[in-house]
Design brief:
about 220 residues, alpha/beta, Rossmann fold, four-stranded antiparallel beta sheet, 7 helices, globular
């Protein structure tokens, strides 16, 4: 089943002098239970494509469908609360909330009672390999690897099964990088998540089921 379908999508932004075409007539389908990697040079449009998939903006041409519903017809704030979660390089945890509260937040936003949200948040933290001792830690007291695990747990807590990861290991050492990719790989293989990951790291990209490269505004599938 197609979780996200992109049809003839183009996108441009305007700099001080002229429009810059970032994406050119892209068509691609991201299937349920697969791990995708998108590589490409800085400025090639990788993160722009990911932001469109997350509903942070709309394409100027073409259509994007999420779970067979056209993006333009959806409440895009609700989309990011319930269907599509984004994991960033900079973690983007709430600094005044501890680990457990960060993971509880999207569930409480979706109307889940606090006691149930707490129980589920603890389960998600265990799934990413964080013991109970980390629950009351605030982001500034956690390592980069721990913060990114909390970010993944929070993404899972939103309830959707589509994870968009924008350079999620860019701030991590090699050991934590391997741990994060292993967690994402497990979510795909054992729980049927669809993961779409943007990375500069070719070694990471090779662990995906399908590799794409952004080049000259187009998305090209790389042969295995």
């Amino acid at each position: 089943m197609s979780k996200i379908k992109v049809e003839n999508v183009s996108y441009a932004y305007r700099n001080s002098y002229r429009p810059v075409q970032v994406l050119k007539d892209i068509s691609v389908s991201f299937e349920e239970g697969k791990f995708y990697a998108i590589t490409g040079e800085s400025g090639s449009g990788k993160s722009t494509l990911l932001s469109l998939l997350a509903g942070l903006d709309l394409p100027q041409e073409g259509q994007i469908y999420v779970n067979e519903k056209e993006m333009k017809q959806l409440d895009r704030d609700q989309l990011r609360q319930k269907d599509v979660a984004v994991i960033y390089q900079a973690f983007q945890l709430f600094p005044l909330l501890n680990a457990l509260e960060n993971v509880m937040y999207p569930m409480e936003l979706n109307g889940i009672r606090k006691a149930e949200a707490r129980q589920k948040a603890q389960k998600y933290l265990r799934k990413v390999g964080l013991a109970d001792r980390i629950e009351k830690h605030f982001p500034k007291t956690m390592s980069g690897g721990e913060q990114q695990r909390v970010a993944i747990a929070r993404a899972m807590a939103a309830g959707g099964d589509i994870l968009l990861a924008d350079e999620p290991t860019g701030n991590l050492d090699s050991e934590n990088e391997e741990n994060i990719i292993r967690i994402l790989r497990t979510l795909v293989d054992q729980e049927g998540y669809t993961v779409i990951l943007v990375t500069h790291n070719q070694k990471i990209a090779e662990l995906a089921d399908v590799q794409y490269q952004m080049k000259d505004g187009r998305l090209l599938e790389k042969e295995a």
